[in-house]
Amino acid sequence: MNAPGTFTLGPGDGSARTGRLTTAHGEIETPVFMPVGTQGTVKSLCPTDLQDIKARIILGNTYHLYLRPGDELVAKLGGLHRFMGWDGPILTDSGGFQVFSLSGLRRITEEGVTFASHIDGSKHLFSPEKVVSIQRNLGSDIMMVLDECVPYGADRAYTEKSLGLTTRWARRCREAHPAGDRGQLMFGIVQGGFFKDLRAQSAEQIIEVGFDGYALGGLSVGESRAEMYDILGDAAPLLPAERPRYLMGVGAPRDLLAGMAAGIDMFDCVLPTRNARNGTLFTFQGKVNIKRAEYREDDSPLDPTCPCYACRTFSRAYLRHLYIAKELLSYRLNTLHNLTFFSIMMERARQAIREGRFAAYRAEMEALYPEGE
Ligand SMILES: CNc1nc2cc3c(=O)[nH]c(N)nc3c(CCc3ccccc3)c2[nH]1
Ligand SMILES: [Zn+2]
After folding, report:
1. Does the global pTM surpass 0.90?
2. Coiled-coil annotation: which residues (predicted)?
3. 302 and 185: one domain?
């Protein structure tokens, strides 16, 4: 097998491309959608379920795992792979974004981010060195640098000042983890808000530091689709073509397609897992809100074209019953299905790119999932 970090490009179609990324826990075909497993579990699923639905790489959260059960404990017990029984690739976020979106009291200084735990209010400091140490303890295959995800609507002066700090933090993360040490990769994160020249400035600085892959941060933070697509189209091509490009926090089916068209290789989003828990199911015939009365006596499968256990075994009537009755099995079956949908959608996208028919595939999927997800 190639050394971790090896990224081999396959056939492309316009700016869309296929590739293969080697990690210490296996190879990933790109473009890839990565299910979020914040607290060391993709909610309601076992690792064997993830294998069954062909999930290739999952996400963990430095912020959550540091606070509970503690990265030192996870390290003592053999690392996150062994702790959660998942032997495939794991990518962990640095915690920067989670601090801004979850914790109370936070202060940003040159040193790092001080914050209060959302669990017990205790005070903590995330410095670049600290978040690298946490991710090394967890043993993640891909570590993200500490960055400031600039809030939507931040003015130019704040955005420009922030990207400078994010670059200095990126340098400190790089210094704290020698390239490829222990097979653990590190991705840089480009900020710059919604200012194209600041995005270019941030990209240039982060690329100059040098990473195994590059992420576009600061998006999917409440902006309109048009605003995200405008920045995406401009910033994605600035990232080195020979390294993986990761669009953080994206997204709905049509956003994944737009991202792939712009040359993005990796995506993450809570949509399939979160929507599963509120009964919004994605099918190849469009969206199904399983709680609707129209499914009360519907003996047909959720999606007759879907190979997942839920669609092979149960009726819409039963899935609706579980949801209405708030049965735990509802989470599991709905999540199995939604993640299978995303996995198949990405597999078909990779195939469409290989066969030079991505534009047609994108149009077909967009017809199913019109504006607003
Ligand atoms: C939903 N929208 C969304 N926009 C994001 C922007 C950033 C950003 O600018 N910087 C960082 N570090 N992360 C971001 C994330 C979190 C992605 C994630 C979650 C869980 C596990 C692993 C990774 C974002 N998520
Ligand atoms: Zn299914």
Report:
1. yes
2. none
3. no
